[in-house]
Amino acid sequence: MTSAMRQNRGGGVSVALAGSGGSGVMTAGTLLLTAAAKAGAYGLMVRTSGPQIRGGEAAALVRLSDRPVQTLGDSFDLLLAIDWSNTHRFADEVPLSAASVLVGDPDEGEAPEVFIATGARYVPLQMKKLAKAIAGSWVNMVALGFAGALAGLPREALEAAVREDWKRGEAALAANLAALAAGFAAEREVSPPIAVPQVPPIEQPRPRWSITGNEAAGLGAIRGGVRFVAAYPITPATELLEWMAPALAKVGGSLLQAEDELASINMVIGGSFGGVPSLTATAGPGLSLMAEGIGLAVASETPVVVVDVMRGGPSTGIPAKSEQSDLSFAVGGLHGDAPRLVLAPTSIADCATTTQWAVYLAEALQAPAIVLSDQFLGQSRAVIDPPPDTGLRAQRLTAEANAPEYRRYRNTPSGVSPMAIPGTPGVTYTADGLEHTEAAVPSSNSKDHRLQLDKRERKLALFDYGDAWADIDGDGDAAVITFGSTSAAVREAVARARADGHRLRLIAMRLLAPAQPERLARALDGVRHLMVIEQNHGAQFWRYLRGNYDLPAKPASYHRPGPLPLRPGELHQAISEWRKAA
Amino acid sequence: MNDVATAAAAASYTPASYKSAVKPVWCPGCGDYSVLSAITKALAMIGKPPHEVGVVSGIGCSSRIPAYTSCYGFHGVHGRALAAATGLKLARPDLTVLVTGGDGDGYSIGGNHFLHACRRNVDLTYVVMDNHVYGMTKGQPSPTTEPDWDSKLAPGGTKVRVFHPLVVALAAGANFVARAFAGDPNGTAAIIAQAIRHPGFSFVEVLSPCVTFRPEQKEWKSVVRPAPVAATDDPVRAARLVMSDDGLNIGVLFAGTRPAYPLNDGVARHRVADLEMEFRV
Q1: Which of A93, A146, B145, B273 is 20 to 30 A from B90, alpha carbon to alpha carbon?
Q2: How far is B42 from chain A (nearest CA, A)?
Q3: What 8-state DSSP symbol labels residue B15?
Q4: Same domain, A310 and A231
Q5: Whole-angstrom Cα distance, residue A468 to residue A220?
Q6: What pairs with residue A513 in β-bridges?
């Protein structure tokens, strides 16, 4: 096996590091990702663990490549387990094949049958013994060295990653660098040599960021101008809040931990009424509690941003696993006729861009914006090209002091009316969730109701959202459409289908509400066959598209719930079968 | 539109400066008229311009008050007034923020926010018009309704003991606790002004008769009396007093010294671009 054959063909190398809690596999995974970044590569790390709060089995699922990585691959080239404690539970999440390598410590017992049965090559490695031989070193550093060598990363990059992250003494650092070297050397000594793909050497490494989707969403929010956050802790949105708390304090903002989500949404509405762009973040259960408050933001025309980091539902569901099953609720889940903005980032980097856009839109349109991130985007860490600040800032149309005949809910042509900010003299008003007149006086009059409903619908409908509503590429009379988080897996599957000779368009939708039927019609011009792909049980996106858009007859649907991610291979197969049947 | 007299930015304000032209929906004889009057009198005593005052409410008869003032008002959803007001005050520490509402809004659907507003101690003034009944929905029992009070929804009474808002407020950490009576708008105004001036979370429970569904409350005027002792800064003493009284002692009962929730100065000490440094590899 020559080194040229071990170079990746865009698919990169996929590595799973597993072990019981405290074995350090998450640290090793993060360092592997950092080392890849230092070597100029891209990467993605997904964390997974058992149901225990602490100390249960855990695995870091890492994919590295010289090209951007936005989704996990179909199978893993390496599963390395520091110990086998309950790791059989990861069998679904860590698919192996006969081309894979399975590394375990023979002193920790035999590998679980479920992994052996895949036909993967078993390579024993006495990790604990190696670590014990170097006083003060940790076994996860041996694992890191082995995995880094297997992935083709330079030893210097691995060492640099460890050094930079080191928080203890110099002696311990030296011991652990020795353990790293021992693991690295052990991979090189495997006979016959391991033959999985590798990250090729990268000539001129460019600066990269290591960031999670939750952090990126927080950054995008602050870039857009958010300076007040109130929220209640919930998996998998909590890290977004934990990142924002100190970050907001640095830029003159603040974050408050609310007593519940009913409080969170009303607190951010209060903050925004005060003129400060405000945001809350939650997951499905919290979004359900916030529904009444979001309706208040609609009726009172108070801009707020709600980031929903979706997880398996309904009810408590599967808190730490991803699913795109809050779509129907987000686009349709408020009582009354309640126009709102719904957006979905299509990658970890796009969490920054789309959240920034959401802040801009909410403020410009004086309406609530729901951002549908999910557990996969939110909690996964990626090495990416830095997402640029789009320059979009919160710019609210405000009333001038002592404006003559000021009416807060004036029926303007755009539907957006100047909002008086408390502190401005001569234009005070009472914002209301009750239906109201243009002058903000409560009213149950049919004309007032109709006028305000029209106004609130019109302001969202007339706005020019530009090209960012979707990412579109390709041509031909067949198209695949998806939204949000699954875009990356679909993109990879479409690339494979195109390589097979299929002509396909790909539409990854970012703006879900208000619906953009004319834009989609243009994107689908000449398309006769359409397939809708999404990660939920009820085909919610397919139903949403059929309800809001004119589509080619009988669009096909590929939908499947979480907790397992949609993988490029299964989507490639689904697309191939669909094209064959057409 | 309900800003009447602020444009001139007069050096001094009268109660009329804080009144809007919107006509209240209340029944004739409702105690809330007097509380509205007391609030405008209190604001005139404070002397802050109406456009620098926020009045926040939820849902219910008394929650209509914001629109009847010339201040910036926020009439939100049922039970969440304290949450909206907390957000407003944290975002805009420069504003004076009042929260108004009733016993159902504050003690039932909004009960959890009441607890946490007390313990958080944000500088807000919460005026609850307590009439022991849901008036807007036409006569159902509230948390402060007597257990044997007969109604269509709870024939023969709820058989549930009453909620004691003042004791709860003291236990949860409110920094100022008072009881007032709507029939005495001047006394109520003085208490509300004191509550606004007091740092932290100030809670004023106002006995405000519902003459429509609780006509017997018209008798409150002949039975309320000034509290027998002056305000204390000891929450234990205050709690003992309000637990043992008959609910008719009027006055400031507790004025604490707990520091208010720290408010943000809004000063950016870093550039947004500085936040990006931690992501660089």
Answers
A1: B273
A2: 19
A3: G
A4: yes
A5: 15
A6: A342
C-alpha distances in angstroms, A35 versus A32, A43, A64, A159?
5, 10, 10, 8
> Angle A139-151/A25-38 helices, nearest 10 degrees?
40
Question: Do A262 and A174 reside in the same domain of the chain?
Answer: no
In tens, the pLDDT along B27-61 reads 999 999 999 999 999 999 999 999 999 999 999 99
CATH number of the domain that A106 lies in? Answer: 3.40.920.10
Based on the fold, state whether residues A247 and A158 are members of the same structural domain. Answer: no
Verify that A455 and A490 share a domain, yes or no: no
Same domain, A347 and A493: no
Q: Residue A75 in contact with residue A97, Cβ under 8 Å? A: yes
Q: With contact defined as beta carbons under 8 Å apart, do A467 and A522 qualify?
A: no
Q: Map tokens 């990854």 to a residue.
A: A508
Region A274-303 average pLDDT: 98
Q: What is the mean pLDDT of residues A279-305?
A: 98
Same domain, A144 and A222: no
Distance CA B239, CA B235 (A): 6
DSSP string of A242-257? HHHHHHHHHTT-EEEE
Residues of chain A contacting residue B55, judged by C-beta atoms under 8 Å apart? 430
Task: Supply φ then ψ for residue A290, to 5 degrees.
Answer: -80, -5
Residue numbers of A between 207 and 266 with CB closer than 8 Å to B: 207-211, 215, 219, 222-223, 227-228, 230, 247, 249-254, 256, 258-260, 262-264, 266
**pLDDT at residue A1, as a whole number:** 38
In whole angstroms, how far apart are CA A186 and each of A76, A139, A144, A183, B111? Answer: 20, 13, 11, 5, 63
Which residue in this structure is represented by tokens 């490494």? A205
Is residue B9's pLDDT more than 90? no
Q: Which of A223, A263, A408 sits opposite B113 (nearest CB)?
A: A263
**Which of A14, A17, A15 lies closest to A127 in space, CA to CA?**
A17
pLDDT one-digit tens code per residue, A115-166: 999 999 999 999 999 999 999 999 999 999 999 999 999 999 999 999 999 9
ipTM of the complex: 0.96
Using an 8 Å CB-CB cutoff, list chain B residues near A386: 276, 279-280
Instruction: In whole angstroms, give the CA distance from residue B106 to residue B99.
Output: 10
| Mode of pairing for the β-strands spanning B53-57 and A381-384 | unpaired
CB under 8 Å to B244, separation ≥6 — which residues?
Answer: none
Round the average pLDDT of chain A to a whole number and report it.
Answer: 96
| A509-521 confidence digits (pLDDT tens) | 999 999 999 999 9
For residue B56, give how far its alpha carbon lies from the nearest alpha carbon of chain A (Å): 9
Q: How many structural domains are present in chain A?
A: 4
